[in-house]
What does this fold into?
Amino acid sequence: MTTDAEIVRLSLARPREFAALFDRHAASVGHYARRLVGADAGDDVMSETFLVAFRRRADYDFDRESALPWLLGIATRLAHRARAAEAKRWRALQASARVAVETAISDIEAASDRADAASRLKHLVPHIRRMSDADRDTLLLYAWGDLSTEQIADALGVPVGTVWSRINRMRRKLRLELPTDTSEEGDDGLAHIRA
It folds into this structure.
C-alpha cells in the first residue's frame, strides 16, 4: 500500500497523483472543518485545504507517512481565517444597521439636496479638481452617485465616520474658497453637503 508521503512525492512529477490523497483524507478533513466552522464554510475550508496542500506539496515532510496531521493543520489555520472573516462581516453589518437607523430620517432631505448639487457643481469644479482623490471620490459619490454615507463607506472600503469627516472637511474648505453668491438663492452652493 502506498503511503501518503509516496503519493505526495509522486505528485511532484505527476500532479494528478495528488487526487489519491484527496480520496484518502477528504472525508476526515471535511468532517473536522465542518465541526470547526459549520457545514457551508466547512466545505469551503475542506476544498481550500487540499488546494493549499497541493500548492505546498514540495514542502511536505516526507518522513511523515500520514499526511492527515499536515492537512488538519492547514484546515485549522483556514478555519481561523474563515471565523475571523465572518466576525468582521457581522461587525460591519451591525455598525451599518446602527448608522442606518440614525440616518433614515435625514435620507429624504439628502436626496433632495443632492438633486440640487448637480446644478451647483459648475461653480465647484475648479475647487474639486484640487482635492485629494479620496475627498473627490467621496464628494462625487455623494453628489452624483446618490449614495448614502453608509453606501459611500461601503464603496470606498472606509468607516462611515471617515465619510462624514471628509464631507465636513470639504464643506468647510469649499466655503472658504468660494464667493457667497454662487447660486441664485445667495448661498454658498454647498447646502447639499450636510454636516
In short: Helices lie at 4-13, 19-37, 39-55, 68-129, 133-143, 149-156, 160-177. Residues 182-190 have pLDDT under 50 and may be disordered. The radius of gyration is 27 Å. The chain is about 75% helix and 0% strand.
